[in-house]
Specification:
22% helix, 8-stranded mixed β-sheet, 207 residues, globular, alpha+beta
Length: 207
């Protein structure tokens, strides 16, 4: 099983980016947490079975010393823009093996004290010049998945319907060839746009 889990957006200012998403698209966010050692922090926009992760900065010097922090600094814009897609699986081991990797275990503590843990594969491909999709297996109950949070949206989102990507090559292309909602084009690599279903009509975020 592989499906869309979340899309990462990067903004120069975390709080201002969250305010823009609410004002322009009616999408509210919840406090996420800090990424120790990377100089970044996030807010979560829950959408049901998927979510948006809005990433910003708490320490630019620390970010500049971290591969993930440098990646975020390179992609930041005044407006929050989608820059990476994460795909959820129920078995990360064979995916990591196909990529020639070992799954990376990670965790963070939510503001309410709940510890979230997960394993990733493909992170180096995301951080590289091709901005490839990466993969996650959550080790949490369904109720604690970030998409399940309750946020005061001004619209009624139903999840991420579609992610349009540029060129994807190598084993990642084979892994995501049949993932529902993921469309690959021949354009330059990266996330080109994200479509979010909502009762009021589709919300489109452009990369």
């Amino acid at each position: 099983m592989i499906q869309i889990d979340h899309v990462i957006l990067v903004a120069a200012d975390l709080q201002a980016g969250a305010a823009q998403l609410l004002e322009r698209h009616g999408l509210a966010s919840l406090p996420g947490g800090h990424h120790p050692g990377h100089g970044t922090a996030n807010r979560i926009i829950p959408l049901g079975d998927s979510y948006l992760e809005l990433m910003g900065f708490v320490d630019e010097a620390e970010a500049a010393a971290s591969p993930m922090g440098r990646w975020a600094l390179e992609h930041r814009r005044h407006d929050p823009v989608p820059v990476a897609v994460c795909l959820r699986t129920d078995d990360i081991a064979p995916i990591a093996a196909a990529l020639g990797e070992t799954p990376q275990a990670m965790d963070r503590v939510r503001p309410d004290g709940v510890r979230l843990s997960w394993r990733l594969a493909g992170l180096e491909g995301m951080l590289g010049p091709d901005s490839l999709p990466f993969f996650i297996e959550w080790d949490v109950a369904a109720k604690d998945h970030p998409g399940a949070g309750i946020a005061p949206h001004r619209v009624a989102p139903r999840g991420i319907d579609e992610v349009v990507l540029g060129r994807v090559t190598g084993p990642t292309a084979r892994l995501i060839a049949a993932v529902p909602g993921v469309r690959i084009t021949r354009f330059h690599p990266g996330v080109h746009w994200v479509g979010i279903g909502a009762e009021q009509g589709k919300i489109v975020l452009k990369g």
